[in-house]
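Suppose a colleague, Dr. K., hands you the sequence of a protein chain of 212 amino acids and asks what its three-dimensional shape might be. Before reaching for any lab equipment, you can write down a predicted structure in token form. Begin with the sequence itself:
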Amino acid sequence: MQLMSRLPAILTGIALAAGMGAATADQHGTLYRWVDEQGVVHYGDQIPPQYAQQAATVLNKQGVAVGHVDAPKTAAQLAQLAAEQAAATKQKQHDTFLLATYTSTKDIEALRDERLDQLHGQEAATQQYVNTLSERLKTLTERAQNFKPYSTRPDARKMPDDLAEQIVHTTNDIRTQRAALAASQQDETTVREQFQADIDRYKELRAEQKPD
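The predicted structure, expressed as tokens, is then:
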């Protein structure tokens, strides 16, 4: 009910403001339109300081919208805009690289296969080393059975320190090499995905270059 009772006054205020604004526009050439916190439309040749953080519409002498003044961006919005611009620049540079480096998707596939072969070679060597370490650990463990605390013989001696150290070091080496093997396998997945993305993008760029 309060809104309905205020509506005629608001509309009258808008109409009066528009008339005054038109006269102002005739004198100064530029007219701004903005809305206050109560939803009331205002016109003027300058935006008051209290509304400087809001968006506004630019009108010509005839009161027709000819432009827009955006509200100042927040720090978060500016950061997001900078990130988007950086991503666009990076993508443009990569697109240029793709077109300048490859003559067809077969070139990309050939380089991909070369990278994968290198990874496969590293994985094979790592796996072989793990196998060797595992055999060594097996031998060391068998030797440890002759000493306390593994041996149940009353006359069993305490395990030599060097044997215990070798078992610990070999176990750690196996753990390290298996982690390296897992990382290499993950690299293989990443390489496949990256090259596939390059192939897909290259096809898009070439399609854009074709005449209609």
